[in-house]
UniProtKB/TrEMBL annotation:
The record marks 135, 210 as: Transition state stabilizer. It comes from Caulobacter vibrioides (strain ATCC 19089 / CIP 103742 / CB 15). Belongs to the glycosyltransferase group 1 family. This is 3-deoxy-D-manno-octulosonic acid transferase. PANTHER family: 3-DEOXY-D-MANNO-OCTULOSONIC ACID TRANSFERASE, MITOCHONDRIAL-RELATED, 3-DEOXY-MANNO-OCTULOSONATE CYTIDYLYLTRANSFERASE. GO terms for biological process: lipid A biosynthetic process; lipopolysaccharide core region biosynthetic process. It is an enzyme of class 2 (transferase). InterPro entries: Glycos_transf_N, Glycos_transf_N_sf, Kdotransferase. The lineage of its organism: Bacteria, Pseudomonadati, Pseudomonadota, Alphaproteobacteria, Caulobacterales. Pathway: Bacterial outer membrane biogenesis; LPS core biosynthesis. Its EC number is 2.4.99.12. It is found in: Cell membrane.
Amino acid sequence: MIRPDALNLYRAATGLLEPVAPALLAHRARKGKEDPARLAERLARADTPRPEGPLVWLHGASVGESLSILPLVERLRAEKPEVTVLVTSGTTTSAALLAKRLPPGAIHQYAPVDAPGAARRFIAQWKPDLAVFVESELWPNLLLEAKAAGTRLALVSAKLSDRSFASWSTRPQAAYRLLSVFDLILAQDARAHQRFERLGGKVAGEADLKFGATPLPVDAAALAIERERFPTAPFLIASTHPGEDEIVLDAIVALPHRPPVILAPRHVERGPAITALAEARGLSASLRSRAPGQPAEVVVADTLGEMGLWFRLAGGCVIAGSLVPDIGGHNPLEAARLDCPAISGPFVENWTSAYAGLETAGGVVMADPSTLADAIAADLADPAARQARAARARSFVDARDREARDGLSRILELVP
């Protein structure tokens, strides 16, 4: 059913629900899903002062989107140092990583809830000259308030899931009204380009901000220490979620020749539970946070911001988030930039275009849980083949990174 007033209904409904937002946020904080010390930011009631001069606001929902913003942040700080950069995100994990990775002068805040009052307060406080939203973050109250205040708006690396596209397709006038606020839309790929145009958006081109990043940083001293601990290159399991640890540990146990393993969970607080899973399978395990340097068959990397260390150290890796449904996969580009041969599970819908390109280039092995042990064993048995695959992945990613940097230049043209 076409509902031309869908956005007005949304704004009215979120306005009615706004009084209960503090209680909902407090409940989420008790469950560890919000930072209790920073709940005021989620209500746009924080007292962080806005610096004088032009301000660019960049928003990415979670870890992947937030990290994809970093090349743009770095370009802004280098080329337009007079501009303040405000970065917002919505998860505690993304906030912790951004605290480590944002350059000096950039400000991080939690994104406000998308309610009319919070949106109005946020825009009034920060007065952004340009707002850049990444991927599929279409928050009507924030977007409409920003547009009404004269903020230029860009949607970059834009994509819509099947569910979102189907939902907006039933509300074409609302979709057109919302997409019309953007001064620039850059789609993530050809499929997204077509979807946004079908909904009435004016798409200026394609740029996937997941490309364009520099290689992950590393602490050289930590790398030297870990190389002493691992005279044989370890095998890395990167960014696991519940249900995946069991799969990868079973695959490791089944290997005829077992290398040392680094298992880096997506959420570091799960470290103790993962060591228990490893020990239940007869594997010795240690937590990096509690026993750095301690040898074990499985070292659980329960620390933030060290993936650049592990990709450099590892002789190969599995990119998790892809072994069970409903997660959507994680970033395979970080491994490729650091010449780490990668294996992935089949569930990679959040990274469809990247994996499609890597598969076409012969730069990744795709395996399902039943074949994962065989895929790891084949990699370990043929170092030359896995390094050739890593080189093909690096070549593909280098080319796409150059294209993405060109897209960043188009965004910078909107900066006052």
